[in-house]
Amino acid sequence: MGVWGFNPRYLTGTFLYSLPVEEVLFFVCIPYACVFTYEAVNYLMRWRLSQKHTDLISSLLIGLLFVLGAIHYDQWYTSVTFILLAIFLALHRWVWKSEYLGKFYVAFIFILIPFFIVNGILTGTGIEEQVVWYNDAENLGIRMGTIPVEDTFYGMLLLLMNVSLFEFLQKKKGLVTPS
Where exactly are the structural domains of the chain? Predict the structure, then answer.
């Protein structure tokens, strides 16, 4: 759709359907590493956001993301990412009443450190040509260095989906630790 793409210089040329194998592996390796980081941060760090602060952060994110996604409905990356994350957070906040959302927010702050390093390189920081390109007509055009601001929220959605599955499976097996 021309929202983003990949520089063929950095690809092996192997595709699974229409996705480069590198992108397919991204959807395996990155969520695994981030769920591992989520669990490690929460094991090592006993400080937690209060439910009041978690609810406030969630409500503010839901409102802001939904409004921005609706206003920028003609920019696919912005609208789809922001609205889907707003819906997913709303489900956590009001439907599922997830007790681990505060733990997720704290861990996400730590996950942002490698995110900015790796995503910065992939989007062109310190290399001749970017590995991943973005069509600024399909996003807000706001960059954090070379990274579109939407990538942070796309990453949050991807990771929250994986953490949600992880927490569901933990709860199902009776392995959930108190928040």
Answer: 16-168
